[in-house]
Amino acid sequence: MKAAAVPSGSIRRRLLLSMLALAAVLSGLLYLTVRGVAARAVEATQDAVLGSAGIAIAEELRGSEDGVEIDIPYTAFSMLGAVGQDRVFYRVLIGDVTLTGYADLPLPAEPPSGLTPFFYSTTFQDETVRIAAVERAVLSDGRPVSATVLVAQTRTAAEAIAGQLANRAALLGLGVFALAALLAVVTARSVLAPVDELAEAVRRRGPQDLRPVARAVPVELAPFVTALNGFMGRLSAALSRTETFIAEAAHHIRTPLAVVRAEAEIALRQAPDDATRARMRSVIRAVDDSARSATQLLDHATVVYRTDQRTDEDLDLGDLARSVTQALAPAADLKEIALDLVVGDGPLVVRGDRLLIESALRNLLDNAVKYSGPETEVRLTVAGVAGGVRVLVEDRGRGLGGSQPAALTARFRRGTNVDDIIGSGLGLTIVKEVARAQRGAFRLTDREGGGTCADLFLPAH
Ligand SMILES: Nc1ncnc2c1ncn2[C@@H]1O[C@H](COP(=O)(O)OP(=O)(O)OP(=O)(O)O)[C@@H](O)[C@H]1O
Ligand SMILES: [Mg+2]
User: Fold this and answer.
1) Neighbours of ion ligand 2 (CB under 5 A)
2) CA torsion, points 110, 114, 116, 118, in degrees to nearest 10?
3) What is the mean predicted confidence (pLDDT) over 219-238?
4) Entry pTM
5) Which residue, of 181, 259, 367, 395, is most buried by count of CB atoms within 10 Å of its CB?
6) What is the rounded CA–CA span in Å between residue 361 and residue 339?
7) Are 331 and 295 in a shared domain?
């Protein structure tokens, strides 16, 4: 019986999901960082040009007796023009009076001091502009006055470049994520490889192989393997105890029964009257019945045990049938039943457990002999058929007497046709279980012309 494990989630999936989540967060952070740095770089570039333009204009301010005059150096704007199709504005103030330029160009929040430009962004004529403000003291009428120069530029080109860089950053983020996802899959596989290898190594073992797992495993798997080895050790000890018990139980039950039977035979012969003789006969019958039951119970226990602990080998069913026929020959001879063995040509080899198949054949032949009258014939045919070997056991006995064949294979179930023939009702149960263990088929039918036909098919593999 194989109980499949109940899976609760998957380590691989959990590992993959957490690694993918980590990769997504890192890619997102990378995207935001690259985009931020790019935007700042674009702004710094624009600021540098705006600042130099402001300084260039401020340096053209000249004080005179009539006040301050300026000759706007248009080269300053050509620098700005190179940046793109943006609009440029300027404003020159002496004190708070606009000397020239756009009088409504917004002033900085705090007045600039000196030629170190002060930069700020604001809205002007419905557009976002970046403004550089510089200040310079000029002599006007012999007195120093503060002159402020503002140079502004719209941000279309800067934003376009920042947008392009942001797209690149997004692509970079996606690329990093894809790479990380690939690595996550590879890592999950390599991390779980020892688990898969261990499972495969245990799965590949034959059912008898209860040796401890000796392969080297990662430390995390060591407690599991230690527990598994401990379990297999206990299982193997329990199984060998069962095997010993079955063998010993057979011996311990049958030996004293044989003694009782022998004593009863002597008592029967020495019995002074018919009543005692009848009593002794029924004692002998009960002993035979018990011995039979013990044999069949142990045979059944062995079959059940062997079904789990089988030793498969290539078996020639012709040879096997021959040895089983020989073993039953004395019982057949007692009733003068002719045991006819017909072994077909060709390969009659099946892969299976010798003890199981022998047990099935013995029980089939035993039934045929047991339920046949004296001086009849029992035929055992072994023939190769497509995919395996077919064994037919045919007798000219009493037939099934109307009993349902399917019901007769149940445990301890005997037919209505048994009369005084001893038996325990386990023979066909054993045959059915062997057929199932070998993945074969078993059928019991009435035979044409009287008798019974047992049909056992065993697949070659
Ligand atoms: N060849 C046969 N001819 C007639 N009846 C049969 C034959 N084989 C089996 N049966 C019927 O099927 C029943 C079940 O068979 P099964 O071999 O399981 O038990 P059993 O022979 O009664 O006992 P045992 O366990 O000792 O073999 C028998 O009791 C009998 O009624
Ligand atoms: Mg039987």
Assistant:
1) 367, 427
2) 20
3) 92
4) 0.61
5) 395
6) 13
7) no
Residue 193 within a domain: no
Residue 181 placed within a domain: no
Matching residue, tokens 């970079």: 172
Pick from 309, 340, 361: which residue ends a domain?
309
> What pLDDT, in 10s, does the model give residues 177-200?
999 999 999 999 999 999 999 989
- pLDDT of 1 > 60? The answer is no
- Of the three residues 289, 309, 329, the one that is the final residue of a domain is 309
369 alpha carbon – ligand 2 mean position (Å): 10
Is 128 in contact with 106 (CB distance < 8 Å)?
no
For ligand 2, the distance from its centroid to the CA atom of residue 408, given in whole angstroms, is: 10
**Distance (Å) from CA 395 to ligand 2 centroid:** 14
Strands 88-94 and 97-101: antiparallel
Q: CATH number of the domain that 386 lies in?
A: 3.30.565.10
Q: Once rounded to an integer, what is the mean pLDDT over residues 149-159?
A: 90
Q: Is 195 within a domain?
A: no
Q: Considering the chain, what percentage of its residues have pLDDT values greater than 70?
A: 98
Q: Compute the average pLDDT of residues 123-140.
A: 92
Same-domain check for residues 35 and 109? yes
pLDDT digits (tens, 9 = 90+) for 290-301: 989 888 988 888
Question: For residue 250, how far is its CA from the centre of ligand 2 (angstroms)?
Answer: 18
How far is CA 34 from its chain centroid? 41
Residue 293 lies in a domain: yes
Identify the domain containing residue 348 by its residue range: 311-461
Considering its fold, how many domains does the chain have in total?
3
Question: Cβ < 6 Å from ligand 1: which residues?
Answer: 292, 296, 363, 367-368, 371, 395, 397-398, 400, 403, 408, 414-415, 417-418, 423-429, 452
For ligand 1, pick from 289, 300, 377, 414 the residue to mutate: most ligand atoms within 8 Å of CB.
414
Minimal-distance CA residue to ligand 1 atom 31: 415
pLDDT at 83 over 80: no
396 alpha carbon – ligand 2 mean position (Å): 16
